[in-house]
């Protein structure tokens, strides 16, 4: 079985892991009701997506 000859330094491990962080979700605004929503999703408030109402809301 292969075994490493020397320990990798903390700097080298950190360089390898530099892209492992979790990125924030990108937020856009609904053109219909101006609610902040994640991009490429149906607006949870009014059900609007890409120029049309996809889900009928039950607000009174």
Automatic annotation (TrEMBL):
Alphabetized GO MF terms: structural constituent of ribosome
Keywords recorded for this protein, A-Z: Ribonucleoprotein, Ribosomal protein
GO biological process: translation
Keyword Ribosomal protein attached: yes
Positions of the UniProt region annotated as Disordered: 1-25
GO cellular component: large ribosomal subunit
Entries under InterPro entries matching the protein: Ribosomal_bL32, Ribosomal_bL32_bact, Ribosomal_zn-bd
HAMAP family linked: Ribosomal_bL32 (MF_00340)
Family: Belongs to the bacterial ribosomal protein bL32 family.
Name of the protein: Large ribosomal subunit protein bL32
Gene: rpmF
């Amino acid at each position: 079985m292969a075994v490493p000859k020397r320990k990798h330094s903390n700097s080298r491990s950190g360089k390898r892991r530099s892209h492992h962080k979790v990125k924030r979700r990108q937020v856009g605004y609904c053109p219909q009701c101006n609610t902040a929503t994640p991009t490429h999703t149906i607006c949870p408030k009014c059900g609007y997506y890409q120029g049309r109402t996809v889900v009928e809301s039950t607000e009174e």
